[in-house]
Design brief:
Blueprint (H helix, E strand, L loop, with lengths): L4 H15 L3 E2 H8 L8 E4 L3 H10 L3 E3 L4 E4 L2 E6 L11 E4 L2 E4 L1 H14 L4 H13 L12 H15 L8 H8 L1
Parallel strand pairs: 2-5
Antiparallel strand pairs: 1-2, 3-4, 4-5, 6-7
Helix pairs in contact: 2-4, 4-5, 5-6
């Protein structure tokens, strides 16, 4: 059973306090404005060995078979630069949890989501952030050049400026 929202945030806070690493992935998406749920905690680490040692020093369990740490029955995964399209440029604190910036989060979600259709939930997170924050096309300037056009197309779709919808398969094929 997945812990509730507040319990997941408490666990994420424990992890960021112990490691100094910011959350990425689902927890970051929640903190920036999506209504999604998540079953794990993903953190950015530029040094997996040091982060692993910090997790062990904090008393978190290590599951060698699954290659993940466990914090109160919740798995914790390390994420590197390649899954974010580069290292985070800015880290802030929301609800006492270190988190990558909204621009870094969207860059990472688009990088992974456009690369593989099985990561459609990442594009869904971007769509929900565009809707909930709300974000407009001018936000694209905060993204790398190769992600600006797909972001703007998503903004058009979310805010209804297009009268015909771009089929999902065509969207992914266009940016693959």
């Amino acid at each position: 059973m997945v812990p509730g929202f507040e319990q997941m945030l408490d666990r994420a806070r424990k992890v960021t306090d112990a490691t100094g690493c910011p959350v990425v992935g689902g927890i970051a998406a929640i903190l920036h404005g999506t209504g999604r749920t998540t079953r794990d905690i993903d953190i950015y680490s530029s040094d997996f060995k040091a982060t692993h040692e910090a997790m062990l020093a904090a008393g978190f369990k290590w599951n060698a078979k699954r290659r993940e740490h466990i914090v109160d029955d919740v798995p914790v995964h390390f994420v590197a630069d390649d899954s974010l399209g580069g290292p985070p440029k800015k880290v802030s604190t929301i609800k006492g949890i270190k988190v990558i910036s909204l621009a870094d989060l969207i860059r990472g979600k688009l990088t992974v989501g456009l690369e593989a259709i099985h990561r459609a939930k990442d594009i869904g997170d971007v769509v929900e952030l565009i809707q909930n924050v709300p974000l407009k096309k001018d936000f694209a300037a905060k993204l790398p050049k190769h992600l600006r056009q797909p972001f703007k197309e998503l903004v058009d779709q979310v805010h209804g400026k297009r009268h015909t919808y771009l089929p999902a398969a065509k969207f992914w094929k266009k940016y693959a």
